[in-house]
Design a protein that fits this description.
about 150 residues; five-stranded antiparallel beta sheet; alpha+beta; three-stranded antiparallel beta sheet; 2 helices
């Protein structure tokens, strides 16, 4: 479970960070949409081996928030909820609207096939602990801790 370099970007998309009994990620993106997609990729890499997951199905996801930290938290919480309740994994994201207070996207993935997909763990919650989102000259950076 280590970070991946974006194709052609030359920058990290996300990295895993150990945190006491939990685990966290630091995600990066040149745009806010890219940050959200990379944060989701980081979270799902903790949950399952994502190499075999295909974008077979698409579903809408709309979210309004009071600020960018709330947006990142809500985005990951919704994806995690769908992973637990609907048993779905997502591998790609198309954004029709993305601002620090609103996202409108299509999420692409498939139902978990327990014979084909290796599941590592369940993320119990996306925490507010040490949650930090920054817009830097080089792009966006988010730190998120997950309760396992």
């Amino acid at each position: 479970m280590e970070g991946r370099r974006g194709i052609g970007l030359g920058m990290m998309t996300f990295e895993i960070m150990e945190h006491t009994a939990d685990v966290g990620i630091i995600a990066y993106g040149q745009t806010l949409g890219e940050l959200l997609a990379n944060a989701a990729a980081g979270m799902f890499s903790i949950i399952a081996e994502m190499g075999e997951v295909l974008p077979k199905e698409s579903a809408p996801l709309e979210l309004t928030a009071g600020g960018v930290e709330e947006l990142v938290h809500g985005w990951l919480s919704e994806l995690n909820y769908r992973s637990i309740v609907r048993e779905e994994l997502y591998v790609s994201y198309s954004f029709s609207e993305c601002s620090p207070t609103r996202v409108k996207a299509m999420v692409h993935g498939e139902k978990i096939d327990f014979e084909r997909h290796m599941i590592y763990t369940e993320v119990k919650a996306v925490t507010w602990h040490e949650l930090k989102v920054e817009h830097l000259p080089s792009g966006w950076r988010a730190q998120v801790i997950f309760d396992l």
